[in-house]
Write a structure and sequence with these properties.
The chain is of the alpha+beta class. The chain has one domain (2-97, 145-179): Electron Transport, Fmn-binding Protein, Chain A (Pnp Oxidase, Chain A, Roll). It is built from three helices and nine strands. Strands 1, 2, 3, 4, 5, 6, 7, 8 and 9 form a nine-stranded antiparallel sheet that branches. A hairpin with a 6-residue loop joins β7 (143-157) and β8 (164-169). Bound molecules: flavin mononucleotide. Flavin mononucleotide is lined by residues 26, 39, 41-44, 56-58, 62-64, 123-124.
Length: 181
């Protein structure tokens, strides 16, 4: 039953890449800042590999990228309201530095989305008017793909008569363990 539970949850997670408006498309990414404070923000899930690594895209000048240079530990949190299913993925997040991989992933970025990686000023810079943002051209971008490497998947499903909570760990070859919910 535990194996099946993990299979079903992985399938649900992967379907976020195919199904329109799937709630797992948008995840909360937490990192740790220079003062050891947790910092969370919403990100879009872009790819899930067979080994469960996840790819996300960002601007290389954002705070999260600076934080990762100091501490690569990260958490991805997902919630599916209809299924009352929560996934908490703990692991490490790394900037991808392989040029061919960056090129492959960059091809996924459409023209409109290029704005996310081409502001002239650093994201988070104070401005007096939100209309006063200037952009560079596509080939002068700050696109940076990040690879999340999970060590643990903690899954919680609220249901009757019993909630289900389990921990799956890479070091145990992703074998799971039921937990008290
Ligand atoms: C719906 C939504 C999706 C977002 N997707 C991304 C994303 O995929 N990558 C990203 O870097 N920021 C994304 N953002 C913006 C981040 O939440 C955050 O504001 C930005 O990355 C700066 O974060 P940081 O300063 O903590 O690094 C998204 C925001 C929202 C509201």
């Amino acid at each position: 039953m535990l194996d099946n539970f993990f299979k079903e949850v992985k399938a649900e997670f992967k379907s976020a890449l195919i199904k329109r408006n799937h709630p797992f498309k948008y995840l909360t990414l937490s990192t740790v800042d220079e003062k050891d404070m947790p910092q969370s923000r919403t990100i879009v899930l872009r790819e899930i590999h067979d080994n469960l690594d996840c790819i996300i895209f960002t601007d290389s000048r954002t705070s999260k990228v600076h934080q990762l240079a100091n501490n690569s530990q990260a958490c991805l949190l997902a919630y599916h309201p209809k299924k009352m299913l929560q996934l908490k993925l703990n692991g490490n997040l790394y900037p991808i530095d392989d040029p061919s991989e960056i090129k492959r992933l960059f091809q996924m970025v459409g023209e409109k989305a290029m704005k996310d990686y081409t502001t002239c000023s650093i994201p988070g810079t104070s401005i007096s008017n939100p209309d006063n943002v200037n952009y560079t051209v596509r080939n002068e971008n700050h696109f940076l793909p990040l690879q999340f490497v999970p060590d643990q998947w903690e899954v919680l499903q609220l249901k009757r008569p019993n909630h289900l909570r389990a921990l799956f760990e890479r070091e145990n070859n992703w074998e799971g363990q039921w937990m008290v919910p």
